[in-house]
Amino acid sequence: MPTKYPCGICDIGVKYSGIKCTGLCVNWYHAGCQNILEKNLKKWTSQEIGKWQCINCRAEKHPHSSNQVLTDSLSLNSSDTIQDLKNSIIENNLLESSSSQEDKL
User: Fold this and answer.
1) Residues 23, 58: contact at Cβ < 8 Å?
2) pTM for this structure?
3) Most exposed residue of 24, 34, 44, 99, measured as fewest CB within 10 angstroms of its CB?
4) Which SUPFAM superfamilies match (predicted)?
5) What is the pLDDT of residues 19-73, one digit of tens each?
6) Rounded CA separation 98/105 (Å)
7) CA 105 to CA 94: how far, in whole Å?
8) pLDDT tens-digit series, residues 68-100
């Protein structure tokens, strides 16, 4: 049975963390299939969601700026990922530190 809202990229049904393109394709997409972090999507306003267009529709609308849009998207996702990694390293160091102090006792 075909899914009601297939992702325009992977064709798997979109149930959670999805967004609908307001461009020509009007397809649904998984946030991850459009290089959008789920935690970032949750912060978007209804106005931002209401005017969002997929990578392909943006490229068709502005063929010369599509590389810049993709670069901006990757930069935003990369900076979030780097911050997540930094936080994880700090947590690991704290856990290792407290564990080694327990061993001394």
Assistant:
1) yes
2) 0.57
3) 99
4) FYVE/PHD zinc finger
5) 999 999 999 999 999 999 999 999 999 999 999 999 999 998 776 655 565 666 6
6) 11
7) 17
8) 656 666 666 655 666 666 666 777 677 666 655
